[in-house]
Each structure stands twice: as C-alpha cells, then as structure tokens.
Amino acid sequence: MAGATVIDHPLVQHKLTIMRNKETSTQGFRRLLREISLLMCYEVTRDLKLTSVTIETPLAEIQSPALAGKKLVFASILRAGNGLLEGMLDLVPSARVAHIGLYRDPETLTPVEYYFKAPQDMEDRLVIVVDPMLATANSAIAAVERLKERGAHNLRFVCLLAAPEGIAKFNEAHPDVPIFTASIDQKLNDHGYIVPGLGDAGDRMYGTK
Ligand code: PRP
Ligand code: URA
Predict the structure, then answer these.
(1) 4-45+72-206 maps to which CATH number?
(2) To test the ligand 2 pocket, which listed residue (22, 138, 187, 194) has its Cβ within 8 A of the most ligand atoms?
(3) Ligand nearest to the Cα of 84, by number
(4) pLDDT in tens, 167-195
(5) Ligand nearest to the CA of 203
(6) Is 124 a catalytic residue?
(7) Phi and psi (nearest 5°) for 173?
(8) Could you write out the three-class secondary structure of the chain?
(9) Cα torsion for 55, 59, 60, 66, to the nearest 10°?
(10) 193, 195, 208, 209: residue to mutate for ligand 2 pocket, most atoms within 8 A of CB
(11) Catalytic residue among 20, 96, 104, 156
(12) Residue 134: CB within 6 Å of ligand 2?
C-alpha cells in the first residue's frame, strides 16, 4: 500500500507473529517488542547522513565514517510507545527523548493529552515518533502536531501495526511524515481496534486489563 513502508525482514515478521498470539505472556510480549524495535530502528535509520572523522587505530590514522548532524530524537507516545523506545535507545543510546502522554477516550476515540516533555531544539534534529499501534491515527496525528508546534519538521513515524484507515488519515494530515510499519492489517473494528491486530498494546505490555 502506498503511504507506508512495510519492514518485511523475516526476523521482524517472525517476532510479530509470536506477539500477535494471545497465548504469549506479558514478559514475552515486552521482550519481543524490545527486540523488534531494534530491528525496525535499523531499517528506519538506514539513510542517515554520514560525515568523516579522523581517528587513530592502533596501527594508523584514518578518515572514518560517523553520523553527521545533531543527535536524533525518539518521541514516544505513552504508554505503549515506551516498548519501542527501549530497543531503539539500545541501538542509538545518545538519542534525545520526547515523551507525549496520550490516551484514547474509549467512547470518542479522540486522544487526551496528559503529559508533554520534549527537547527544546527540535528544528535541526530528525524526530522518530514511536507507537506500536496506528489505528484511527488520532493519537499519532495529535502527537506529530505537538512536535511540529515545538519546531520539529523532519519526522518519521514508526509502528508495529497499522490499519489502512489510519494510514490514509495520517498521510492526509501529515503528508511530509513517512510511516514505517511491520504490518498493514485488514481493518478497524467498531471499537477502533486493529483486526486481526494484537489487542491492546499497552495492556499486553504491562499486564493491565
Ligand atoms: C493505544 C496505542 C496508540 C493508540 C492508537 O494507546 O498505543 O497510542 O491507542 O489508537 P489511535 O490510532 O486510534 O489513536 P492507548 O490510548 O490505548 O493508551 P496506552 O498506550 O496508555 O494504553
Ligand atoms: N490501540 C491498541 O492498543 N490496539 C488497537 O488495536 C487499537 C488501538
């Protein structure tokens, strides 16, 4: 489907299948989310710009590649975004972090903000927004709006599962923000849940319900 890049690496797809399984434990779900986020981070950052730095190996001085520009920002949509954040920070430990506290009102499916904390200087940084689920896209759209208000203009959105309806709505609201996902599922059900999906990501991560 146009509008989202599907990360189809076999390890990502295998881990996602285990995560979808309702028999997978809370502990297993959290561990897999961390592992999968590491693999997804690898794909999402594959085109980062490099510069050349001078270093000395034990044998010689060389020009060697290193990441160019300011440190990137991971923006986690609480609470389930933190599952993706952990693995990404394992891979890019020097990244800055923004937290956006949003929950979906179960009746209206509109996001309610309860927390926002982000680095001040977002203008010159790549901002990678993370949340396992893109369902109606209301949460992701609101989070990106808040980050843009803060000056961010180079953004990417990463999720595990996306509904076709959510992709279309997000692309319309933020055509400049590419979506990366491990799967585009069939549809949303009447309660705004992704089908077949994996259930409520936050509940499965933290054992709440
Ligand atoms: C889930 C999920 C997304 C949102 C997706 O969070 O982590 O943030 O729903 O739905 P949407 O695309 O329709 O907005 P939830 O609101 O359940 O909060 P939680 O992470 O605190 O459980
Ligand atoms: N949020 C979730 O956690 N799961 C869904 O399927 C939809 C929204």
Answers:
(1) 3.40.50.2020
(2) 194
(3) 1
(4) 999 999 999 999 999 999 999 999 999 99
(5) 1
(6) no
(7) -75, -40
(8) CCCCEECCCHHHHHHHHHHHCCCCCHHHHHHHHHHHHHHHHHHHCCCCCEEEEEEECCCCEEEEEEECCCCCEEEEEECCHHHHHHHHHHHCCCCEEEEEEEEECCCCCCEEEEEEECCCCCCCCCEEEECCEECCCHHHHHHHHHHHHCCCCCEEEEEEEECHHHHHHHHHHCCCCCEEEEEECCEECCCCCEECCCCCHHHHHHCCC
(9) -30
(10) 193
(11) 104
(12) no
The phi and psi torsions of 132 (rounded to 5 degrees) equal -60, -30
CA of 154 to the centre of ligand 2 (A): 26
Nearest of 167, 182, 69, 85 to residue 123 by alpha carbon? 69
Query: Ligand 2 centroid to 90 CA: how many Å?
Result: 25
Name the closest ligand to CA 137.
1
Please state, as a whole number, how many other Cβ atoms lie within 10 Å of the Cβ of residue 65: 9
Do 88 and 42 form a contact (C-beta atoms < 8 A)?
A: no
Is-contact 30 24, C-beta < 8 A?
no
Query: What does the chain come to in residues?
Result: 209
Q: Tokens at residue 24, please?
A: 């997978």
Q: Is 129 in the pocket of ligand 1 (CB under 6 A)?
A: no
CA-to-CA distance for 17 and 165, rounded, in angstroms? 22
Q: For each successive 10 residues of the chain (209 residues), what is the average pLDDT?
A: 90 98 98 97 96 98 96 97 95 96 92 95 96 97 97 98 98 98 97 97 95
